[in-house]
Each structure stands twice: as structure tokens, then as C-alpha cells.
UniProtKB/TrEMBL annotation, chains A, B:
It comes from the Bacteria. It comes from Dactylosporangium cerinum. The keyword Transcription applies. Pfam families: HxlR. Coiled coil: none annotated. Residues 11-109 form the HTH hxlR-type domain. This is Winged helix-turn-helix transcriptional regulator. Keywords: DNA-binding, Transcription, Transcription regulation.
Length: 114, 114
């Protein structure tokens, strides 16, 4: 159990929620669900993300201990990203949310145009 | 099963994810989980939200068919918000994400300052 509460403005839980409750964070974390990916591979996987936004999102996730960056000893040098142990705990929540969006997209679109 | 895919930039699933994968949407939907709430009551529940942001968030959720607004025949007139049937399907995903944030806030804060 935790004494933290997302309803409280100044609670660390709110800060943490703000970190992950954003579209790009959800899609990037979800996109790392199958294992490590190179930057270019991840950019291909996450449709529509700009280099700037992918870099920003990865830096934010890295700073928060959710993602690990690794420089590969290849030529040319590549960079790989993977979820940390902490990051893997986020896979279920983002998966549940992403699948909800996939399953309810038609209903939402219908309401929006109704 | 759905043919929609949040990894595709132009997919309705991505649009739907963008609608709900944001801090205020998550907290407001979660805050309506116990049943209808008056505007003022909801604003008290969701710590730190401005009137403008709460109104915008509720309008967005209403337009998407997730929330229903009802004018109460009281004096002074009150306004109440509640989740629709579609909105209630979102309770589990936002609950899972909010609880994740509450449970992992300390680990994230530790990583961030480390």
C-alpha cells in the first residue's frame, strides 16, 4: 500500500502520473515491451513521432529510471534503449490503456462526430 | 478484437489514446469513479486543477461520449457530471495507471534525484 494519492496536487504520485500519462510516453514504453530497440527502430515503430519528441521522451523516461540507454560497440555506433526493471512494471498499465484505446476508438469517433 | 493500432500515427486508436493519456483526463475520470459529482465537488476532489482546465477537460470528455453533463433543478442551479457507459469502461485503465503512479512514486522520485 502507498500513502500517495494522485488527487493531491503536490503529491509525488501526481508528478509520477504526469510523467507517464502522456501519449508519447505511453506509446514509447509500449513499443519497448518486446525488448531492447535501437533508436532508429523505435522511431519506425512509433508512427508519427519526430526525432526531437522521441529524444525528449526517451530522456525523460531515462531520467526517471524507466528506460536505460546503451551505446552499442558497432560500426557505425548505434544506441539502444530498453526498459529497466522499474520501467517493466509500467508495461501492464500502458498496455491496458493502449488496448482500451484500440478497442474503443470506433465508439469514441462515433460520439465525437455525433 | 480490433484492427486499430496505437503505433500508427493516423489511426483512430492513436487519436483516442491522445484524448485519455493526459494527466487531467486520467484524474478527472478516476474522480468520477464513485458516481456523479457536482462541478464544485469535482474541482475540490481534483487537487490543483484550475476552473478553466476542469471545464476544458470535462468538455473534451463530454464531446467524446465519456462524460455526461446534467443541469440540476436546484436553486441555485447546479451542474453534475457522470461517466457514461462508455466512460465507465475507461475506469479500469485509468485506475491501473493511477495506482501504478501511487505505488511507484517513491522509486521514480529516487531515480530522478539520483
Amino acid at each position: 500500500m502507498s500513502e500517495h494519492d494522485v488527487f493531491l496536487a503536490d503529491c509525488p504520485a501526481r508528478t509520477t502520473l504526469s510523467l507517464v500519462a502522456d501519449t508519447w510516453s505511453v506509446v514509447v514504453v509500449y513499443g519497448l515491451g518486446q525488448g531492447p530497440r535501437r533508436y532508429s527502430d523505435l522511431r519506425e515503430r512509433v508512427g508519427g513521432i519526430s526525432k526531437k519528441m522521441l529524444t525528449q521522451t526517451l530522456r525523460k523516461l531515462e531520467r526517471s529510471g524507466l528506460v536505460r540507454r546503451r551505446v552499442l560497440a558497432t560500426a557505425p555506433a548505434g544506441v539502444e534503449y530498453e526498459l529497466t526493471e522499474l520501467g517493466r512494471t509500467l508495461l501492464e498499465p500502458v498496455g491496458v490503456l493502449a488496448r482500451w484505446a484500440e478497442e474503443h476508438a470506433d465508439a469514441i469517433a462515433a460520439a465525437d462526430s455525433g
